[in-house]
């Protein structure tokens, strides 16, 4: 599983010009099952995406399709983690070795 932290490099009004395309990007990867949750940071300096995969390459390939990356509007910090404890409703996410 991966936490993707997005940080804007440009003023918010520039980001908002590409927001509709970014939302379509998110929809594509929600439908594929790669993305589980996403949202804005507060204060609004970027966003967070949680991706459900064990493959770094899958995340990297998906992020190439984000309009924010294509237009050099943001940077991405990708952190892999292994969920070992969850609430019972999220047990399906656990990756116990």
Automatic annotation (TrEMBL):
Task: Give the matching SUPFAM superfamilies.
Answer: Dimeric alpha+beta barrel
Organism's domain of life? Answer: Bacteria
Write down a Pfam family by its short name. Answer: YCII
The UniProt record lists the YCII-related domain at: 1-81
Spell out the family assignment given in the record's similarity comment: Belongs to the YciI family.
Name this protein carries in UniProt: YCII-related domain-containing protein
């Amino acid at each position: 599983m991966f936490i993707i932290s997005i940080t804007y490099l440009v003023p918010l009004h520039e980001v908002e010009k590409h927001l509709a395309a970014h939302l379509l990007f998110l929809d594509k990867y929600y439908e594929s099952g790669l993305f589980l949750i996403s949202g804005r940071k507060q204060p609004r300096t970027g966003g967070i995406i949680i991706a459900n995969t064990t493959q770094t390459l899958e995340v990297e390939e998906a992020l190439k399709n984000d309009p924010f990356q294509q237009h050099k509007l943001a940077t991405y910090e990708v952190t892999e983690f292994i969920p070992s404890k969850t609430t019972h409703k999220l047990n399906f996410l656990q990756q116990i070795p």
